[in-house]
Design brief:
Elements (H helix, E strand, L loop, with lengths): L3 E5 L4 H14 L4 E4 L8 H10 L9 H19 L4 E6 L2 E3 L3 H4 L12 E3 L7 E2 L13 E3 L9 E5 H9 L8 H6 L12 E4 L4 E3 L20 H10 L3 H12 L2 E2 L5
Parallel strand pairs: 1-2, 1-3, 5-9
Antiparallel strand pairs: 3-8, 4-10, 5-8, 6-11, 7-9
Helix pairs in contact: 3-5
Length: 256
């Protein structure tokens, strides 16, 4: 079985119970990694963190800092381990039953693969037109565009070592470091694959039947920011880009 790591805050007993019951039902063991709560950092430590990791025209939210440090702890553990691949999960993940078959062993994983996304993305993603493989009967494609979210993924031990070897000045929020082809110094060099439909999705992305876990590692958007984000989607430029991406084989990643 491919080792699985769960990122979970100490106070999130309900999330841990939800995740543990799901994985117990599927017969998947996991190791918990204590998540970092960026809201608890002293202001001086928060400022020092940001000073070491300047983000050009952006800044670090405390939630992004905590999320990054939590994933970084997982990468360190994986890099020190002896397994070729490991799985990393955040604790608000819903999973399909065949995740057990995907994680049963790593013989289907080529050595040249760096990351396999197990979850949906909040944006359309450009995938190869042809299926590369179908472990457990689930289609797998190569990713050729930036994608978002770091709630569930398989990562090569070599790739985890590359991530922790990067100097602090190259650090970005976790999903940016992993998947942003321009803002990350590493992502464009990685071979990233994506299941579509994905076997995992974050609770907040479910239309129905969600547990309604609000994010407590990353800061929620203010009402003003939510309104601006909503209005942005009706601009002609955004609509035109969506049509262009659809024609260029950018796909919405489903969950099943």
């Amino acid at each position: 079985m491919i080792p699985s790591y769960l990122i979970n805050l100490d106070q999130d007993v309900q999330r841990l119970s939800f995740f543990a019951s799901t994985f117990k039902r599927l017969g998947i063991e996991f190791e918990r990694i204590q998540a970092v709560d960026g809201r608890l950092f002293a202001e001086t430590d928060y400022q020092a963190f940001m000073q070491a990791r300047p983000r050009h025209d952006k800044t670090w939210l405390r939630g992004q800092m905590g999320c990054f440090l939590s994933h970084y702890a997982a990468w360190e553990k994986i890099a020190r381990g002896g397994q070729r691949f490991c799985a990393v999960f955040e604790d608000d993940i819903h999973v399909s039953d065949d995740l057990r078959d995907i994680l049963a062993d790593d013989r289907w994983l080529p050595d040249d693969v760096d990351i396999i996304r197990l979850e949906t993305s909040t944006n359309r993603v450009r995938l190869t037109p042809c299926t590369l493989a179908a472990p457990a009967g689930r289609p797998l494609f190569a990713v050729h565009s930036t994608s978002w979210c770091a709630g569930a993924y398989l990562i090569n031990r070599r790739t985890a070592q590359q991530l922790i070897d990067l100097p602090a000045k190259d650090h970005e929020p976790a999903d940016v470091m992993l998947y942003h082809l321009t803002d990350s110094v590493l992502a464009a060099k990685l071979k990233i694959l994506q299941f579509n439909p994905a076997p995992c999705t974050q609770d907040k992305h479910l239309a129905t039947g969600s547990i309604n876990f609000a994010s407590n590692i990353e800061d929620p958007l203010s009402r003003t920011a939510q309104l601006k984000a909503g209005l942005a989607w009706i601009s002609p430029w955004i609509v035109g880009r969506a049509i262009f991406r659809s024609l260029r084989a950018y796909r919405r990643i489903g969950f099943r």
